[in-house]
Amino acid sequence: MSAAGHLPQDEAGRGHGVHPAHRGSIHLEDGKVVAQESWPGEQFVLRVSAPKCARLALPGSFVHLTCDPDVPMRRPLSIQRVNAAEGWIEILYKIVGPGLRALSRRRVGDAISVLGPIGQPFRPDRARPRSLLIGGGVGIPPMVFSGHQSNGLGGPWKPLVLMGSEIPFPFKARPSTILVPGIPAGTIAAMPLLDGWGVPSRLATKAGYPGCYDGFVTQLADEWLGSLDASGRNEVEMFSCGPTPMLEAVAKVAARHDVPCQVSLEEFMACAVGGCAGCTVKVATPDGPAMKRVCVDGPVFDSRAVFS
Predict the structure, then answer these.
(1) What are the pLDDT digits (tens) for 70-89?
(2) DSSP-assigned letter for residue 257
(3) What DSSP character marks residue 45?
(4) Is the CB of residue 123 less than 8 Å from the CB of residue 262?
(5) Which of 141, 194, 253, 297 is the most exposed place for a label (fewest CB within 10 A)?
(6) Domain 20-118 sits in which CATH superfamily?
(7) CATH 3.40.50.720 at 130-306, yes or no
(8) Could you tell me the pTM of the whole model?
(9) At 268, phi and psi to the nearest 5?
(10) Where along the chain do its domains lie?
(11) Average pLDDT, the chain
């Protein structure tokens, strides 16, 4: 294997365990830390140079990073932003164990190995241009990525990003400059980055942060969907990433309003390229229940197939 190239066709899927369907699409790069910001709640926003990954990544895909030379196992982390022109990717993570704590100590200029992009991305339906994007905790990154991409598509796309957290958000929230009909009065806190892109966002929490919806993000989504008439709901498609209980609640909201929904699952991973089958989940298929790998068959699945 080349130290800074894509997995060679004759090696991918053999010694390195990459599933044949992903040969040539997952790259191994010797990246460097470009920036690392710390936020309350032991949260960090990491920017890494990885030109090949930045060029190919799509909302919902993720990377497998080395945290430190002394930590042998990589960690799977969702991509929040990319800049293909400048060749970097950005990741939000929260410390949960020694590996990510070691990652938090990396400094600008440090080498970091990047394997990615990995996984099936979200696949928006052009017939449903009102994308309702719901992120919880460290499930926020794919929603930011999706909001930016769908907003950049122009035409009929009208993304709305809803985020929930019970610890401080990993950004300085501010009152939104974008009016969103159907959002409860007083719910005005937004993510400045999205606001600057012209993408409306709103925040939900039970922690009492100013300007946020007082409740779970799934309750906020339920209220907004309930404000739409049948014609409006027929234009909506939901996308979500976060902890499993939240995703299950999102699936129930989608079913209640008869809106299609795609969810990005969070699961422990070892190889992250389909070789070990350690991240399998039961998924409903036309041929009956089947065990699917979250890393390469997902992480994005139809909510009805996972939470039936």
Answers:
(1) 998 999 999 999 999 999 99
(2) T
(3) E
(4) yes
(5) 297
(6) Translation factors (2.40.30.10)
(7) no
(8) 0.90
(9) -65, 140
(10) 20-118, 130-306
(11) 89
